[in-house]
Amino acid sequence: MSLNAVIFDLDGVICSTDRFHFLAWKELAGQLGLPFSEALNDRLRGVGRAESLELILAGCSRSFTPAQKAAMCEQKNLRYRQLLCQMSPADLSGEARGALLALRRGGLLLAVGSSSRNAPFILERIGLGGFFQVVADGSQIARSKPDPEVFLLAAKRLGQAPQRCLVVEDAAAGIQAAKAGGFWAAGLGAAASCPGVDFPLRSLAQLPALCAANR
Ligand code: G6P
Ligand code: MG
């Protein structure tokens, strides 16, 4: 397999931002008189901001102009960023930290491939600013997952072919993106049972041994 690099999704893999997305979207949906549930929040994993808004508005009979939708995304994001300020290095689990350090010691190149435009801010908050060789995020791409663009950009900036990279994902959209780009895919949580997953994972702690066995 000759793995040279690991490209991590951020939200739900390196750290959990689910509760903050949930609160910020719920507030916006409430103002619009729309329902918002944990189940809908789960469907937004890995999906870009504007695409997420479309899924939330799908249950609404009113129509909105592009400018109104942009203002809604902006409002949600301001609230989300306010909530992200609660994050600290304590939000990086010992398990994630240990796996990242072991992979780096093992000589793997490490990158982030996230649909989030807030990825650099979140990495700073949890003490990983500057840790990864490459951070490809939602502000650098035109198409979010399930399109492979963000992972292809990360691989290109690492100087690695997709077949030399393992993508680690917690979302169906991310697994689809990885496979569409020709990457190896490891699935965490619900994504462990997604079609196309090469390595179902129970925990990030499994990664160093998995990568060492496939170098
Ligand atoms: C990640 C999250 C999604 C989120 C997307 C965009 O993929 O899993 O839930 O919608 O990023 O995030 P942003 O921070 O740019 O709104
Ligand atoms: Mg994710």
Describe this protein's structure.
By secondary structure, the protein is α/β, with parallel strands linked by helices. The chain has helices at residues 18-31, 38-43, 49-57, 66-84, 94-105, 119-125, 149-158, 172-180, 207-213; strands at residues 5-8, 109-113, 134-136, 165-169, 184-188, 199-201. Strands 3-2-1-4-5-6 form a six-stranded parallel sheet, sandwiched between helices. The termini are close together. It has two domains: 5-16 and 89-213, Rossmann fold (3-Layer(aba) Sandwich); 18-84, DNA polymerase, domain 1 (Orthogonal Bundle). α1 (18-31) packs across α4 (66-84). The chain has nine helices and six strands; from the N terminus they run βαααααβαβαβαββα. The site of magnesium ion has 9 residues, from loops. Residues 9, 11-13, 45-46, 170-171, 174 line the site of magnesium ion (MG).
